[in-house]
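Protocol step 4 of 6: record predicted structures for both targets in the notebook before any analysis. Target 1:
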Amino acid sequence: MIIVNLTALSGFLLMGFSDIRELQILHGLLFLAVYLLTLAGNLIIIIITTVDEHLQAPMYYFLKQLSLLNLSFITVTVPQSIDNSLMDDGYISQGQCILQVFFFKSLAWSEMAILTVMSYDRYAAICFPLHYEVIMNPRTCQRAVIAIWLNGNISGILFTTTKFSITFCKPKIIHQFFCDIPQLLKLSCSDDYLRVIGVTTFLPVLGFIGFISIVLSYIQFFSTVLRIPSTEGRSKAFSTCLPHLFVVAFYVFTGMFAFLKPTSDSPTAFDLMISIFYTVTPPTLNPVIYSLRNEGMKEAFRKLLLGGQFTRKKKFCALVDTSFLLPVSKILNNIEFIQ
C-alpha cells in the first residue's frame, strides 16, 4: 500500500540525510549556516566589484558574474533542503522539482562556462599583454557574459524537457536532499529513457571539454611564466592561479563522477557527500579562494566594513595603461591576480 501511494504521488519524496529527527534538525541548521555564509561572501564580492573603481578590470567583471552564479546555484537546492529538514517533510511537488532541475542544470553549465572564460582572460593577460585591451574589450566581455547565460538557459531547457518527457512508474523516492538527476532517471520505466541518458551523458562531456580548454590555457600560461627570470613573479603567478585550477578540477570531476557513475538502489553516505562537493562546496569556497589574498579585494572590503568612501566608478574594462609598456616579467610583478 505504501508503494502504491508513493507511486501515485504527484510529486517526489526527498529522503535527505537521515530518518532520525535530531540529525535532520542538525543537518538543517548546518545547511542554514553554510547558506548564510555563502550569501554573505558572494554578495560582498558583487557589491565591492560594482562600486569600487579599482575593481573594474575584466577579471573582476567575470568574478562578479561568478559570484552571482554561485549565489543562485546554492539557492536552487539548499533552502528547499533546509525547509524539508526543519519541517520533517521531504515532499517536493513535481513543479518544484522541474524548476529545480532546470535552474540546477542552467546554472551548473553557466558556471563551467564562466570559469572557462576566466581562464582565457588570464591567458590573454599574460600571453598577449600588449593586445589585452583589444582582446578583452568591454563589448567582448559583455557579449561573453550574455552568451554564458543564454547557453546555460538553453542547456537547462533541453535537459529539463527531455527529462520530464518520460514516465515515472516506480515509487517516487529520491535518496538525495534535492531532485538529483541520476536518481530521477532511476525512477523511469518508459521506453525513451535512452534519449535521456544520452542528454545526461552529453552535458557532462561538454563540461569536460570546457575543463580541457582551461587546462590548455593554463599550459600556455605556465609556459610563459616559467620563462620569467623573476622568482617573485613566478611565485606570485603560481600561488594565485593553482588554487583556481584546483577548484575547477574539483568541481568538474566530482560533478562528472556523480552524473556518470551507475546509480545504486541503496545510496550510501559517500553518494551524499559527493553531491555536496559539487552543489554546496564550490559556491561556499569560491569567495574565499578568489579574494582571500587579493589586496585590491581586501582593501575594498575594509572600506565596505568601515564605511569608507568608494571613489567614482571608472570606465569598464580599463586597466593601468603603463603596465602594458612593461616587459612580461614586470607585468607579472605588478598585475593583480585573483585568488
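Target 2:
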Amino acid sequence: MALEEYLGSTARLTVSRQAAFGYFLTDGEEEDVLLHQNETEEKLEEGQEVEAFLYVDSQGRIAATTNIPEVQVGTYGWAQVSDVKPGIGVFINIGVQKDMLLGEEDLPVHEAVWPKVGDTLYITLRVNKNNRIYVKMATDPVISEIAVKATRNDFNKNIHGLIYRTAKVGSWIFTAEGFKGFIHESQRKREPRLGEKVEGRIVDVKEDGTVNVSLIPRKHEVLDEDSERILSYLESRNGAMPFGDKSAPEDIQERFQLSKASFKRALGRLMKEGKVYQEEGWTYLNKNGQA
C-alpha cells in the first residue's frame, strides 16, 4: 500500500535508517518517510517498528510523527482553533507540528460567526484527490452519536457548552453534560460564533432527550447586572450622578446602554434596598446604607 493511503491516519512502519535530523520510516515497499527528531520523544533503532501518524508538511511532503492525535480520518475529536485567515479559513491544532485547515467553504458565510483563536470544534480529517488533508466539522448525526439524553429533572438547569452549528434561525450547542441542544434566535442577544463557549439554561427538554437552551439571563439576573452597572457608575463619580427616574430615555441609553424601563426597575430596586436616594433629579449613593 502506498504511503499516501495512510495520510491523516496511523500506520505501522519500520525504521529503515537514521539521519542527522531524524529517522526514515518505510512501509516495506520502496517508499520511505521522514520522522523528524522534533516529532518523536523516543530513541529509535534501525529495524524497529513504530506507530506513526502521517500528514503533509508545509513543503507539501509526507511527514511522520509518533505523537498520535485523537483527530484522524474517520475519527472525531475536540480541537482548538490556532489561527484565522479571512478569505481562507481557520487553522486548527490537532497536536502535530502542522495545523490543519478548515476551509472557508466549510465555514459560515458571515465571517463574524467564524471561530476565533481558542474556540473549540468537534472535527475529523478528510483527504482530497490531491492528497491534501483538510478539517471536516462534525455533522448533526455525528453529534447525536456522542450525545446523552437529558431528563425532565434537567429543566431550568444552568449549563455551558460549545456551539457546533450556527444559522440565522438559531444555534446548536453541545453541553458539558453531553446534551445536544438548540438555541432559538429569540433566546440569544447575538449570534454566537462557531466553537464559542456559551452559558445558558435549559428551557425545555424534548421527548428525544435533546434540549432547548436560552442564553438570555433570568429576570432577577438581569436586574442584578443592571443594578451593578448603576452602582459602579455612581462609585466612579464619588457617589453622585445627574440621572434619575425623570431622565430622558436617550440619555440613559447613551450612558448605561439600558432602556428607561430597565433603568427605572434597577434604580427602584436600589432605592428599596436603601443603597441610593434621589434629590432634584440627581441620584446619590447612600453611604450610611439607609434612605
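Step 5 preliminary note on target 2. The chain has four domains: 3-65, 77-138, 142-214, 219-285. DSSP finds four helices and 18 strands in the chain.
Proceed to step 6 after PI sign-off.
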